[in-house]
Each structure stands twice: as C-alpha cells, then as structure tokens.
Amino acid sequence: MNCEQVKELLSAYLDDTLAQPERQQLAQHLHTCAACRAILADFRRFDALLAQLPRVSPKPTLYEKIFSSPDYLELTSISYAAGNTKTISPTQSRRGGPGRPRLVALPGGRLAPPSPPQPPKANRLLHLVRKPWLQRTMLAMIAALLLLTVAVGNVAGLNLWQKLANVIADAPGMTPFVGPLSNPLPTGLRLVYLRDGTLWSIAPDKKTSSARLTPDTVQVATNWAVRPPQPGHSAGNFIAYIDQLQGYIHLIRSNGQDDTTLPQPLLKQDRIAWNTNTGAAILSSLHWSEDGTMLAFVADPEGSGQTDLYLYSLQTKQFQHVTLPLKGIISQPTWSPNGVRIAFKLSHDGKIGLLDYNTHSKNTLTLVSAVNTTANPHDTILSLGWSPAATTPTITWSVGVTGHIHSLWSQRVGTGHRSTALELASGEYTEASYNRTGNGTDGRWLLVSAQIGDLISMDLAGTTKTLTTGKQVSAPCWSPDGNAINYFDALTTNKGNLHIINVATGNDTLIASRVAAVPSPLWSHDGQHLAYSTGSQIQVASPQARAISSPLRLQGSATTMSWSVSSSSQLVLLLGDGEQGIYLLDTQKDITMQINKERTNGPIWWTQIP
Questions:
Q1: Listed residue (357, 351, 385) closest to 371, CA to CA
Q2: pLDDT at residue 6 above 70?
Q3: If phi over 0 gives left and psi between -120 and 50 gives alpha, with beta otherwise, what is residue 269?
C-alpha cells in the first residue's frame, strides 16, 4: 500500500472494520511510515476530543430569542404570526441607507407557511441550489449557527482541554491499535511488565488502569531493558526492546511516547530466525551503560551466521560499529562502571575468546584468545564482571560449565601497559558469583566448594576467606551494600534453610526453614530487608533487628518479587497461579493491595516518568 491508499483506509482501520489481509497490509505500512502514523494519531486525538465533548442543547428561551429577533426576521424578510405570512416591503427592511442590499422573503421559518408549488422531484435539488437567494440565506444561517456554537463551545472547551491530557491514560481498557499512546502517561513511578509480546505500564497506587506501551504491530522479545536511573531519579525513563517480527530495536520513553525504531537491522530481513545461536545471542545482547548514555547490542544484518558489536548513543543518536580482529558470535557484553569500556565473549572457529573495547580510543584488546579446554573440553566463559575502581579498571571472569567452575581470572586494562591475566583460583566449584559491592574496594567473588560445600569469599588479588563450615551451601548472594550474604543450606527439591551472614562480625543466622529457591530471596535496595517465599507465603526478614514480619498469605505462589525503588518497605509480587496478578505489599503497615489481575510474563521493572 502507498500513502494515498492508507489515508483512505485509516478511518476504517481505526473503527476495526477492515478485512484482516487489508488490515495487516495497512499495519505494515504504518510500521515504516511516520507520516501516516502521525495522521492516525491525529484521528485518535479527534476521536478522544469528540468522545469528551458534552452533549449541548440550548434552552428553548435561547432558541426563541434567536429566531424571533428583529435581525433574524429582517435577514430573512419574513414575519409569522398565528400561522399567517407577512412579507416585509423593501422599504421596511432597509437599514443603513440606500446602499443596503435589498432582501427578499424566504418561504419557511419557525412557523411553516402553506407549501408553495414544488418543481418535479428530478429537478428539485438543482432548482433550489441554483437560486442565488437561497445561497445568500444559507450563508446567513450558517453564520448564525457558528455564532451559537462558538458561544456554547467556549464554555465547554474550558473543561475539555483540562481533561484532554488524561483521556487516554485514565480511560479503562483503552488500548491503541498502533503507535505510541496518544497522550503521555502522568509523571511518577510506574511498573512495566511483559504480557503476550506487549509491554504494559501501571502505577503502583492502582489509581489508573494498565496502559499499553507498544503497538500491536510488534512482538516484544523477553530480554527488554530499562535505562539506568539518571541523577536525581529513582528509575530509568527509557526502555529498549527488540521487535521479533521485523528484527529491529525500539526505544520508547517511559511515558509511552516517541517509540523510535533504530535503523540498524538485527538480522537479514529475508531470513529472520531466532532459534539459532546467532539469534539467541542477539536477543540477549541489549545492555545499557551504567550512566545510561549508551546501548550495546549485537547484530547479523548480512545473514553470515556471525555477529558484529554495535553501540548506540542516546545523546548523539549515532552508531558505533565495532571492528574486531576476528569474526564470530559475540555475547555477554558487559560495561565498565564509567561506561568507557565494554568487555564481551567471542566464539569463533570452535574457540572461546574474551575481548575489551575502549569507546574513547576505539581500540580493541584481546584478553583471552582462546580458553584452555585441554582438561575440560566443554569449558567456556561463564560470567564477566568489572572492578569498581575507574582509575585501575579490572575485568574478572569465571571459566567452566554450569555447576562445574574450574578457574577464576582477573586482568587490569588501560593502565598504560599490557598486563597479563592472573589466575585467582583453580579447582572444582559448584557456584561462583561476583559482586562489585562485595565488601571490598575491588569487589569479591563468592565460591561454593564442590568437595565440602563450604562458602568462600575471594578478592581480585586471590585472597580467600572461608565463611561457613560443615554446610551444604547453595545460591549465595551479597546484599546491595556488601554488609551481608544470604545463602541456602541443604537445598533439596528447590527448598532449603535460609541463612544470613553478617560480614563484619561473621555471625551466621538461620532465618527460616523450608524456604523456596524460586523466586530467589531478594534484598531491598538499601540492604535492610530480605524478602523470601515459602511457596504459599511471603515473609520479610530484617537482618539488623533479626526480626521477621508476619507472613503474607496468598492463594498462589509468587514467581517474581521486586522491591520499590523509592521505599524499602514496599514489595511488588507477581503471582503465577491461584490469584494471578500483581500485588503491592507494604511491610510497615502490613497492607496488601492488588494492582491488577492480569497474567504476566517475565520480570517486573520500575520506570520513572520525569
């Protein structure tokens, strides 16, 4: 379809009266044509305006006053009394001197006179339209009606324009067919979640219904990403997502506006397939820099089966296409804390390498050309992390397979000379997780020994400390402030004993037994509370006071938990069965509120509308 054809069908598209093939063709055109999307947005705004206009009926006295006024009677040159018609003479009708045009009587009026003879029906309309007196009279009547409309509209319009900003946001169940919301969502914090390939936004106070952020012409992939919060804000204001139907990245504001398609295709357009190693690497590649100015992703626009690394600047709206010394499949892009460097894994010719790219110098450094797989042929790079020190940036990584970690490494980069990788540990570990805030200036690893199941911490110089003895540790995790560690002991069938270690004192406290491993226990952002699930109950522990709140009893098990970014006492829960929906728990007031009842896929992220 071209633009002219689409414009003719936009009204029918908006009314959902098109046949499905025609509707799909039009939707595809709208996806690529900003001009037609703008026209459709105008149509929606007009519909919203009309829907909000009050039904105005003038009072009978106003009607009588207008059509009985001397000016109206003089204009039409007629006067009726008791059903009789009186024709006003030209002399009587004339005001303002001899230069005033002569007015002729018009049959009709408020009281219908006897009907004059009618011309034949076939010529009646043409007969009337061609009469000059009718044209002049029609113009006069239109002017009178316009004056009446403006007078009434000025009163109604004062309230209408005040309400217009909230027409879309506050209308329950209103879902746009295509494009962003016609009006921006109101300011404040909101929860964003994925349902059936569509992103939705809802306020945690339940004052408004869910608002659909993405159009029905796209299918959002699961690994969408919210921009990190900017200074002075609690959450990000941009969302990056991949449209699986067209194979492009979209950026949309948290208020539902400015859904922009980045022009770089992710896959060759005639062979979009996500169920390949290349497709999986692309879908999982969206990563914002920590200052929120750059978005990293990988793409295979030529269909070669290999990927290239791209960096998009939100400030300049420009791309950087990173040139690499080797071709392969890129995965796990990981930004340094200052947003200057990005490390990533490269799979090429059956080998696994590790590279680092400097966005300022545009130089690429090969840290590992190939992982040593002599003893363990299936080993790969499992996780990457950066030290928090910007002056001496250090990258650290683990090598092995899931459940069998065989070595840990670190290497300084950008220090003026090329350093070599330092092997921090080797052996057999069931788990290894790194955290920059792990009670140390350079961050720390948490390791679980495969032989005895003890928990060990290790810094980036290779110094270790055993934290538990005689425990079968699983799923250790640092608190956000690095002052505590939670872990499971004797985890079987996804349930175990939940412990918290105070890093400063070394005290190990049993919090609860038979705690569910899914969803994982979750720390509040200030590290003061730990929420966990027993399957049918949600409880919150306070490590400092060693207190546990009353359990929250729900008819269903939680699949996702998310602490509020603005309050350490508010917890958002997503229930996957039973009472499905999103719930807000206030741990201080012991109040539970259901935000919505809809089924939701995947995690819940916080956004902020400035």
A1: 351
A2: yes
A3: alpha
